[in-house]
Specification:
- This protein is an alpha/beta fold.
- It has two domains: about 100 residues, Formyl transferase, N-terminal domain (Rossmann fold, 3-Layer(aba) Sandwich), CATH 3.40.50.170; about 100 residues, Rossmann fold, CATH 3.40.50.
- Helices cover about 35% and strands about 25% of the residues.
- The protein has a seven-stranded mixed sheet with strand order 3-2-1-4-5-6-7, with helices on both faces. A two-stranded antiparallel ribbon has the order 8-9.
- The longest helix has 26 residues.
- The radius of gyration is 17 Å and the shape is globular.
- The model has no long low-confidence stretch (mean pLDDT about 95).
- Bound molecules: 5-O-phosphono-beta-D-ribofuranosylamine.
- 5-O-phosphono-beta-D-ribofuranosylamine binds next to helix 1, strand 5 and helix 6.
Length: about 210
Amino acid sequence: MTARLVVLISGGGSNLAALIEACSDPGYGAQVVAVGADRASAGGLELARAAGIPTFVQSVKAHPTREEWDVALAADIAEHQPDLVISAGFLKLTGPAFMERFGDRYINTHNSLLPSFPGIHGPRDALEYGVRITGATLFFVDSGVDTGQIIAQVAVPVELDDTEETLTERIKVAERRQLVEYTGRLVREGWTISARKVLIGVVPTR
Ligand code: GRF
């Protein structure tokens, strides 16, 4: 069975591109069935269209309240019946309607070693703090900001002459590899979560 992935983006979509490429191998076990964004300007939307993947946009501003945006976003995603929803640079926190439907299968990739440097400026904050090692974290999203159960982490060195840009790019290389590897493993092997530990290949007994 090929797992159905819905990928959410806000930016250029380099992580999305890596996932689309991985999915071109039938042995990978997954397919990107839709790409959603919170802004029409997200560069990754074009990338998805070029690959023939359906897209949708739900911007918070287009709705009277954030709750209504959340309901609309969840409805768009539900149409594509995802096995896994992946935030790949999606810069919005989803709300209760979304989490009720997809909270058990929503993962996010973040560009720091959590719990250090949560939020949208991971590389900048790591640089300002002066850490010598940072990295990327893949995790199941919960209702907090970057606080969910960790699936995998990868370490990336900080060089003394790094700028925010050079560090961000170095992290992205490792981050993409990790996202592709672990998304594939999750969908092929299944998982269970116990005491904050994500156990891949251990499927819950029913
Ligand atoms: C990733 O590094 C992610 O950690 C951060 O935004 C970046 C998304 O980049 N939140 P892209 O749009 O996949 O190129």
